[in-house]
Design brief:
With about 110 residues, the protein is of the alpha+beta class. It is about 25% helix and about 40% strand. The protein starts with 8 loop residues before the first strand and ends with a strand.
Length: about 110
């Protein structure tokens, strides 16, 4: 990275014996809506598919806040489907809790 480079987003991908998981995708607020998240998601999917070749990985997992409609739509467009819900998973500033939607994409 050059000394003037700016980080505008990142993805964290973890690999297990049978599943890979997107731990985080973050895009700088000023760069949202410009396709950065879609490119990061595509890169994570490509990496997971690369790992899958000959390894036995079956699917790619992620979770998204129930209120994050933009991320859920992006994930669905990429082929992820909802597998379940973690009730009250995320803490809210007001002391409440928000559900997490559990999603997966088959790699095989």
């Amino acid at each position: 990275m050059s000394p003037t480079a700016e980080v505008i987003g990142f993805v964290v991908l973890a690999r297990g014996p049978f599943e890979a998981e997107i731990e985080a995708i973050t895009v700088h607020a000023a760069r949202r809506g410009q396709g950065v998240g879609a490119r990061l998601l595509a890169a994570a999917i490509a990496q997971a598919r690369d790992w899958q070749r000959g390894s036995g990985l079956e699917r790619l997992l992620l979770e998204v806040r129930a209120s994050n409609a933009a991320a859920a739509a992006l994930d669905a467009k990429a082929g992820f489907t909802q597998d379940g819900v973690r009730k009250g998973y995320y803490p809210l500033v007001d002391g409440g809790r928000e559900d997490a939607s559990l999603m997966s994409l088959p790699l095989t």
